Amino acid sequence: MIVAGVIPCYKTPKKALKVVRKSYDYLDVVICVDDCCPFNTGKEIENNFNNKKVFVLYHEKNKGVGGAMKTGIKYALELGAKIIVKIDSDGQMSPDLIPSLINPIKSGKADFTKGNRFRDPNVIFKMPTLRFIGNFFLSFLTKLSTGYWELFDPTNGFIAINSSTLNLFNLNKIDNRYFFETDILFRCSINDIVVKEIAMEAKYGDETSNMYPIAEIPNFLIKHILIFHKRILYNYFVYDFNPGSISLIISFLLGITSILFGGFYYLRGMLSGVQTPTGIQTLFLAMVFISSQFLTNFIYYDVTQRPLFRKLRSLS
After folding, report:
1. What is the pLDDT confidence band of residue 110, given thresholds at 50, 70 and 90?
2. CATH fold group of domain 3-233
């Protein structure tokens, strides 16, 4: 079983060398993708690793971390890799954890694995405050949009995935930039792929992130909204129809009816000056309450039953 590591390289000439050197012993193939790096990270790697085990690919234009990963994944699949690991070149993720990351896939207990930085409570004190707050809200948003409520650190970029799962996706449609990991997770969710987390420690030093969080907020929000609607459509109406689907339909129909019903009598009262009868007000409140209850049922199903289904799959 060939295990390949893909390392997107951009503005990390020195740290990338250390990452490749540490990853070397755990992987059958190391694929470094120089994403049009102005510091020639790819050349630095080539000059230091004259070995058939290490491959360096180049982009003529910067495509982003997702674009670099897609190039590396396609090459790894051509080489016959069965498991592909994503490793960032900035040294935040220890390659020593690669065996722990790929073991659940090798044993058949998972199709996709991710690191989890929050198994150790001390990570809260080690992580920069702004980054911790950003991760907290982004993690919740990712759970909501992808449906992987069982994951505690869904935005973690230290991932491993098997080739059979990758073959379910059209790689060309996956996001080219920082939304790559979330986009992969979304596509896993509509196929009910089993995802496991392994405990890890992230290192926060003097590295400089190429992502500007404030500038990415509108972009991330729009993409999360889009994949949320797609997930609901696929998971509850295209690929499956379940109690959650029924609850959502009833909630939606009653909600729309109550809005139209209440709006009609409110405008009628405003124009005529006649107070809306108590019975009509009671009926409106009842429809709103019942709609809310069915929406709550849907949320409960989405948060508990789908993760349970994936857990049972992993045990079978």
Report:
1. very high
2. Spore Coat Polysaccharide Biosynthesis Protein SpsA; Chain A (3.90.550)
Cα–Cα distances in angstroms (integers) from residue 143 to residues 72, 136, 256, 292, 302, in the given order: 27, 11, 26, 21, 11
Across-strand partners of 116?
Answer: 199
> For 260-279, what is each residue's pLDDT tens digit?
999 998 898 888 888 888 89
210 CB burial (10 A radius; 0-12, 13-18, 19+): middle
Distance of CA 116 to the CA centre of its chain: 13
Every domain of the chain and the residues it spans: 3-233, 241-315
Q: What is the pTM of this model?
A: 0.89
d(CA 140, CA 159): 19
| 26, 32, 152, 227 alpha-carbon torsion, rounded to 10° | -140
| 281 token code pair | 């007000």
